[in-house]
Amino acid sequence: MAFYLSVNGAIEGCQIPEGDHLYVRYALVYGKDWSFVHGMETGTSQIAKRPAGADPVFVWNHPIDFTLKSTNAFGWPRLVVSVIGHSMMGNEVIKGYSSMLLPTTEGRHVRYSSLYTPKSSSLCRRITSWIMATPPEFFEPTFVAQGTGREVTRVTSSGTVKIVVNVISKHMSKLGYNSHGNNSNKNKNSELISPKVSDSRVRGLFSPGTFSSKSRQISSNSTNGRSVLTKSLKSKEDMKLNTSSKFSSLGNVTGKKTRFDSSKDR
């Protein structure tokens, strides 16, 4: 049995300090056990112009919609985003790469992914790329979603991209995967901890007048309890005094009897 993962949303825009007339290109990267079912695996947006302002944000609202299926979660899909502009020579230049792991839980998710560009390996190449207006870039855009060979690359931050996705899954629970996150557990725990109460009881418990009446009742009960306790203590003390007086009177009586009997014997 295979489970399905359906994702739809949009690449809303990005914030980059440099550049103008930018567009975005996305691609999907997933494992060998995954297969593409429906939608667009790659896409390119329209060109956005730099707006006026201190913090310009390029807005695309480019839609993404695709469905994948797999038998296991290994090789969970990633969304690779490339922001592209044009140089003075009219050539395409990379303004930033980004790789985002798709959310593993259902629902609406808003992600802010960092953009970065590769740096030249030497000062000579850096000067050459600046003169020719051809900054360094990766041979394949999907290279940023891989782990092999990344340790020898150097990058610099270039901005942030905003991505909004809606995730829907099917048959994941049958294979033992929890795609609902911790919300279901929280609801279960809350139901176990706090029992279900009817609306009328809830309204009665949380009405503003009940707290004052409850407090008065508790205070009256506490005062009544204190008075009862003091009465009981007084009664116990009285009983002790009575018993002690009784024993003392009995001792006197017995003492007199013994003295009388001794005198009689003499």
What kind of sheet is the major sheet? 5 strands, antiparallel
User: In terms of structural class, how would the helical and strand content be classed?
Assistant: alpha+beta
Helix content: 25-40%
Query: What is the rounded Rg?
Result: 41 Å
Shape: globular
Strand content: 25-35%
Low-confidence stretches: 184-223, 246-266
Total count of strands:
9
Order of helices and strands: EEEEEEEEHEHHH
Strand order in space, largest sheet = 3-5-1-9-8
Blueprint of the fold:
Elements lengths: L2 E13 L7 E7 L5 E5 L2 E3 L13 E13 L7 E9 L5 E10 L5 E12 L4 H10 L22 E16 L12 H11 L5 H7 L2 H58 L1
Antiparallel strand pairs: 1-5, 1-9, 2-4, 2-6, 3-5, 6-7, 8-9
Provide keyphrases for this structure.
266 residues; alpha+beta; 5-stranded antiparallel beta sheet; 4-stranded antiparallel beta sheet; 4 helices; 33% strand; globular; disordered C terminus
Overview of this protein structure:
This protein is an alpha+beta fold and 266 residues long. The chain is built from 4 helices and 9 strands. The chain has helices spanning 123-132, 183-193, 199-205, 208-265; strands at 3-15, 23-29, 35-39, 42-44, 58-70, 78-86, 92-101, 107-118, 155-170. Strands 3-5-1-9-8 form a 5-stranded antiparallel β-sheet, with no helix packed on it. Strand 6 (78-86) and strand 7 (92-101) form a beta hairpin. The longest helix is centred in the last third of the chain and has 58 residues, at 208-265. The chain is globular. It starts with a strand and ends with a helix. Mean pLDDT is 74; it is low at 184-223 and 246-266.
